[in-house]
């Protein structure tokens, strides 16, 4: 794709909008280098990453990227052996912390929100190296404002303590001079200052020998000398020595830290690249929210469909959505009509939307938007006349078109603006038809705008080409910018002239000059526009009705779910209260039994076995619900649904069984012992009967003739000999239970277990037929058995 095409379609302006949403210079660089992808799989991943970023924004409102710096230069300098500055380490540590915070953020989101699915972001988070040791070392050594801390080493702490001691001594002595009686006369000002890293006081020139010491500087007028009094020379020397020790120790510490950064250089570089990508994804997601974008469905059919599309560079409140479609029933779209009215905007929208989709960006359009991947996008839009080359408008366009025709193929999208303009209308229209034919024959996808009447007929008669126009409001004398697909454009010259007050006689005379077929064509176009508007209004009403119905359905679903939860909560609360009452009764009974035993010990006639029987009766008494609580329980269970194999209780028969299959709405086929019957959901209650414990290595779901027989036998993990025994036992019980079909799950594995099962089933007298499981039944890992 050529740079001038991207500029023509204003791709760079769109990238400038996108760049407003990055958090770091790394993200800016990613967007600066952004270019449309040419491979469908790459585009798919880029779109999925944007969708995941937008998903995170919906759940959390932001993606934390504060503190990310571009530290690639610092890493390289460290690896080359240069000593880094304290501020460099601050930037490095900020970036390490930012990575750790983002990693924890994504992990916490996945832990707290089960419905969140962000595999790409999860993978990026996994790639971030914690670098805890380096982060801790820098934090203990460098302050957040970029200074080496006293705690960095014992030697540094000692040197700085000495510096502070010497400075305190110096200031004390100098302040004594400032407070002395001679100070007002001999000093220019009562302040302590520093010159050449030595503490000095400002002394008037006339009293330069009053305090002795060393002159370090003088004022610009020469009237003031900055003198280090003799009384502080020794302390200043000691301070300077301590400062040198401090500097040497700081250099040693920074060199040590630099070496650690160099050792972790590869991991730091990897983190930097990952954070740049996450910043880029965050920017794409934020931009998608800003433009109210949707994720386009991608296809390999070279088909694009942009319903209710809005050019992202136009004011969102003013832009009129348009429907654009190419590559389905027609491969070329010819937008006809006068030069005003937004034809070029429609053309640029197709081009820019395609570039955005191939860049992994959402599109400001309606749901069900579809996009494809073109390897070439060609655009001849606007007046590209070159003054330097002295080319006319027509010559400039034709030069561009010749270049396009050299490379266009069936993987190309071609955009022509005012094709054939700038020359004699008859010749220009003929050229336009021939050029469109050539591009169409190469099976490219084409959108062209023109004001030539001849191209209306071309689009109508040519297979695979569709007419379109931009609607014009004669009353306001302005375009509405709505694109009418299937309706050719018309100039509206007579209507506009009449509206502006041109004499009716002149208009009638002009109309009489028009050929009869031209008049008829204009009338047909007018009728088409009216029908298009009626159909569009009906479609909008239907869409709104469907939207309201879908919203009502969602509300009813939510209400039903809430009701189910409330019913279940009431049932659980009632059961909990009943259990609490029983526990309370047992506690009271224990107290009574204790009293009875005490009486027994005191000589009263109370037998021990009576105490034991009393306690046993209490422990075996189940929590009995009140009549009202039983009603609540039945209501809560009435709306419950059941799955095949689920244990149920049938109060009418006071017997437990299990669901075999669903027979109809709220009806189930239930196995009760050797009987199978169809019962309504109202006749059933869920049971909390625990599953039997497994013994040894057996994983069969048949636990004995006294238990309910399941519709399948799971042999996975079973030894061959045990498995054959389990199959024979299970088939006998399944026949007794009345099953017509059962499943033997043996898995795929090496095939030995499957082969043995097949051979046994072929010889078993109760087996009618067998087959491998279907796609939704486990495939060859499951054998479906028809019983006689």
TrEMBL record:
Q: Where are the compositionally biased (Polar residues) regions?
A: 697-706
Name the chain's protein: Endonuclease MutS2
User: Region Disordered: what ranges?
Assistant: 681-712, 767-788
Q: Does the keyword Ligase apply?
A: no
Q: How does it assemble?
A: Homodimer. Binds to stalled ribosomes, contacting rRNA.
Instruction: Please describe what this protein does.
Output: Acts as a ribosome collision sensor, splitting the ribosome into its 2 subunits. Detects stalled/collided 70S ribosomes which it binds and splits by an ATP-hydrolysis driven conformational change. Acts upstream of the ribosome quality control system (RQC), a ribosome-associated complex that mediates the extraction of incompletely synthesized nascent chains from stalled ribosomes and their subsequent degradation. Probably generates substrates for RQC.
Q: Look up and give the organism this protein is from.
A: Salicibibacter cibi
Chain segments annotated as coiled-coil in the UniProt record: 149-176, 518-602
The UniProt record gives the binding positions of ATP as 337-344
The coding gene here is mutS2
Sorted UniProt keywords: ATP-binding, Coiled coil, DNA-binding, Endonuclease, Hydrolase, Nuclease, Nucleotide-binding, RNA-binding, rRNA-binding
Q: Basic and acidic residues bias located where?
A: 681-696
GO terms assigned for molecular function: ATP binding; ATP hydrolysis activity; ATP-dependent DNA damage sensor activity; endonuclease activity; mismatched DNA binding; ribosomal large subunit binding; rRNA binding
Example of a GO biological process term: negative regulation of DNA recombination
